[in-house]
């Protein structure tokens, strides 16, 4: 009986891993960055992410870990544990709050004001944590620009 249960469990694991291997990673893009309230030496920012699910099945997420570099500077990172479900073939905006030290952002602000630009370079590294017993985290890296004139 134990062998039968073990075989069923291993078959299920193999099927789940085979299915996950055929899923495409979602696209995650930074589409907005808004300034919130400041407290002392820390500034709250709201990061708008657009997550696109290219798969034929919905994507259910339990958490998103994010790390943002702007103009080559590590500025923002954090975790959001707000559940999210994205329908098959759809895109959904997901806003995450973060706080940055004004000291770490000072060099960036100085550079932007010294040499104004319309577009800012960013690197976004996200780890998406899908729901499900045998789900594996999905890491997505995006290097792009966003416009300051929005």
Protein architecture, described:
- With 150 residues, this protein is α+β, with helices and mostly antiparallel strands.
- It has 2 helices and 8 strands, in the order αββββββαββ.
- It has helices spanning 2-21, 102-114; strands at residues 27-39, 42-52, 59-70, 73-80, 84-86, 91-101, 119-130, 138-147.
- Strands 3, 4, 5, 7 and 8 form a 5-stranded antiparallel sheet that branches. A 3-stranded antiparallel sheet has the order 1-2-6.
- A hairpin with a 2-residue loop joins strand 3 (59-70) and strand 4 (73-80).
- The chain is elongated, with a radius of gyration of 19 Å.
- It starts with a helix and ends with a strand.
Summary tags:
150 residues, 53% strand, alpha+beta
Topology:
Elements: H1 2-21, E1 27-39, E2 42-52, E3 59-70, E4 73-80, E5 84-86, E6 91-101, H2 102-114, E7 119-130, E8 138-147
The rounded Rg comes to 19 Å
User: Could you estimate the helical fraction of the residues in percent?
Assistant: 10-25%
Residue fraction in strands: over 45%
Number of strands: 8
Determine the oligomeric state from the structure. single chain
- Would you tell me the overall average pLDDT? 81
The backbone outline, from C-alpha atoms, is elongated
Largest sheet: 5 strands, antiparallel
**Which class best fits the helix and strand makeup?**
alpha+beta
Ranges where pLDDT stays below 50 over 5 or more residues in a row are 13-21
Separation, N- and C-terminal Cα atoms: 63 Å
